[in-house]
Amino acid sequence: MNYIAEIRQQNPLIHNITNMVVANYSANGLLALGASPIMSSAPEEMEHLAQLCQALVINIGTLNVAQVEAMLIAGKAANKNGIPVVLDPVGVGATPFRRQTVQRLLDNIQFSAIRGNAGEIATLANVDWQAKGVDAGEGKADWHTVAKTVANANGCVVSISGEVDYVSDGKQVVTIHNGTPIFPKITGSGCLLSAVCGAFLAVEKTSQNLTALVRACTAYAVAGERVMQGISSTQTGQFAIQLLDQLAILDDETVEQYGRVNYV
Amino acid sequence: MNYIAEIRQQNPLIHNITNMVVANYSANGLLALGASPIMSSAPEEMEHLAQLCQALVINIGTLNVAQVEAMLIAGKAANKNGIPVVLDPVGVGATPFRRQTVQRLLDNIQFSAIRGNAGEIATLANVDWQAKGVDAGEGKADWHTVAKTVANANGCVVSISGEVDYVSDGKQVVTIHNGTPIFPKITGSGCLLSAVCGAFLAVEKTSQNLTALVRACTAYAVAGERVMQGISSTQTGQFAIQLLDQLAILDDETVEQYGRVNYV
Amino acid sequence: MNYIAEIRQQNPLIHNITNMVVANYSANGLLALGASPIMSSAPEEMEHLAQLCQALVINIGTLNVAQVEAMLIAGKAANKNGIPVVLDPVGVGATPFRRQTVQRLLDNIQFSAIRGNAGEIATLANVDWQAKGVDAGEGKADWHTVAKTVANANGCVVSISGEVDYVSDGKQVVTIHNGTPIFPKITGSGCLLSAVCGAFLAVEKTSQNLTALVRACTAYAVAGERVMQGISSTQTGQFAIQLLDQLAILDDETVEQYGRVNYV
């Protein structure tokens, strides 16, 4: 399927319950890609938005108790309405509050996909790893196993973002080799990718969630690579802006041509 | 009146009760134009800010119950202090919570102006229209009548933003033909225009609110047109940045020269 | 000490309790410099973050009652854990709510540094000054005395940002003469500087807080000067982006070479 073409044609409405750091960037990124963002954490409208939207993206970056309640209502309503739900467990290893919240979300909502950095997904897999706040951190892990484990435990697709991306549905593990080291220097670059995953899932009508996630992560990585062709590795401000421009012109053929994807 | 020159000279303080998606962009846009922004939703300081500021802009983009209470306090205080109040009914048609909130605001606050996209103003006019979340949506409507109806129902100026802008005080309808299709691709571009309307109203001392709104919307549209002369229609990231640069150099003469305004 | 090199090597985690207007820009600025940001205002995780982070930055820009409670918990925990705490009293003179909140913070937390614009620090010194919302405002004041007074009253370093920066520990007053007039036109440029001060303090292990603040403010001002060499004084959008790029390449030698610092 030509996901990007479908997104531009269907213009799916993506409901984001997200953090105040990245709300603007995520909205602009979705618009650039061709989707429509709506950002809301008001419990009063969570059920109505689930009837209106084609995907829900839950991001715990600046969570608070009231917002978590909204996440639970929205997630259950999305499940009831059969729309895909993406979880971005931002900084889940940083504090017990984040770990407990993510557990509660996983216990109550059936996610279609979980996308995070190495530190976040390692936390979900109970792997020993030195995560650092909301950053990926460092350590050694067998990412094939980690991705599979978390996917199987939660019955959904899992994507680990980094120099190499790992995407698994619990059976297969796909690796994407288009990493751009500048991504972690842009706040919200991971959060925007989670929103982009939501848009790809929104137009995936045959439950090929693994394929949708692989395409989403490949498209995003290819967009980053193409931006880096024109700027230096320290231009983080420029990168953030030009990534939006790049998402607006990216097409499925380009992703197909430049993506370096290994199906293991 | 030379509104932009007056704004640069008076540097009016604009109180924005706004959403987390656009707060940064609205603040930077007001600063570029020559006004001073203050963003606050704390009920404790709403009355004090009404004594300090020259205009209030209420935006329901990421509303919650606590913020709505602040809006009501601030709006009433602004009315008592005689400063103009602008309403941006972001995505009002999307959910009952938004519709009820806007009704409550309209019942309790006398607005000087309401600015929204086609979908939002159509909702206020009870016109059949397919709005899409916070986006304009599509359909057919007689915008002259819609603008007049909403203006008369609320005793204020109404501005509908789009390819053609419609501005009405309930008697006259003015159209502005400087539309730039990239605007809806930038999150908060409408929200910033509402804030700009607040700045124009802040320096309008003779209650010529229709004129102030027409000039504000024309200035903003002309700024957009001028940015588009230097970039391509897909450069949404660049557009957002250069629109700020353009607002910082725009002057009344340029708006006068390039504005295509029809008084019907 | 080579502060910037140390920040890039240690990559300190900086906890920001900040406002929704500047959260994104502060996070991107800290990342560009080489530090790691985490933004959180959830009372449930304030104590855990104090054990994880190397500095805390408290910013009252869009304060609310719940966030103030989080600030108090976080500040006390930071004091207990011996990590530096920076206060940015955004718009403190604007309303009684802000003044009372800052007083409460100062009564309960031992700050390492307070950084603000002229209007904000004048308010803390009870000096007659026409501040304007969250902007610096105008008037006449003896900034040497103001800086010393506020530093002595609170037992910490104080930095007043403006055309000339004043930094004092209550005994000495240091002035920095690298001011760039465009800074106040960028929302959150002061807030980012406060976060940068947090990063410099995080790597200062011998309690030379005056030196750390002087270096932080000089580095930031030099970065601004260097950006201005390539753009015009009205390009506020470009300035904001290029300041990030500049922070990413700035080094201690450049700051040493171009800083114009007077130790009085």
UniProtKB/TrEMBL annotation, chains A, B, C:
The lineage of its organism: Bacteria, Pseudomonadati, Pseudomonadota, Gammaproteobacteria, Pasteurellales. It catalyses: 5-(2-hydroxyethyl)-4-methylthiazole + ATP = 4-methyl-5-(2-phosphooxyethyl)-thiazole + ADP + H(+). It comes from Conservatibacter flavescens. One of its GO terms (biological process) is thiamine biosynthetic process. Substrate binds at residues 39, 188. Catalyzes the phosphorylation of the hydroxyl group of 4-methyl-5-beta-hydroxyethylthiazole (THZ). One of its GO terms (molecular function) is hydroxyethylthiazole kinase activity. This is Hydroxyethylthiazole kinase. Keywords: ATP-binding, Kinase, Magnesium, Metal-binding, Nucleotide-binding, Thiamine biosynthesis, Transferase. Gene3D superfamilies: 3.40.1190.20. Pathway: Cofactor biosynthesis; thiamine diphosphate biosynthesis; 4-methyl-5-(2-phosphoethyl)-thiazole from 5-(2-hydroxyethyl)-4-methylthiazole: step 1/1. It comes from the Bacteria. ATP binds at residues 115, 161. Its EC number is 2.7.1.50.
